[in-house]
Amino acid sequence: MNKNIQAQKSEQRDVGPWWQQPWPWLLMLGPLVAIIGCVITMTLAFRNFSDEPVFDGGMKRGLVVERHTGKPSVAESR
Q1: Nearest CA to 18 among 9, 6, 10, 27?
Q2: What is the pLDDT of residues 17-43, one digit of tens each?
Q3: String of b and e for 16-40 (b: at least 16 CB within 10 Å)?
Q4: Cα–Cα distance measured from residue 77 to residue 28, given in angstroms and rounded to the nearest whole number
Q5: DSSP readout, 5-43?
């Protein structure tokens, strides 16, 4: 009886290669969609907004855009 149960378990485990199962592909689909979305977002950001000038009295320092309404103080100029 014990051999019969072991034979049934071995038959159930042998389901073929992993790429023929739906679960690995379903689990990989989420990160793949996130990577594709990231690439699309970065492409649109660099194509459309990379060299926009700053208007209305703003000052761009690296990635930060600061708006100054008056004369900068001594501390800000350093």
Answers
A1: 27
A2: 999 999 999 999 999 999 999 999 999
A3: eeeeeeeeeeeeeeeeeeeeeeeee
A4: 51
A5: HHHHHHHHH----GGGSHHHHHHHHHHHHHHHHHHHHHH
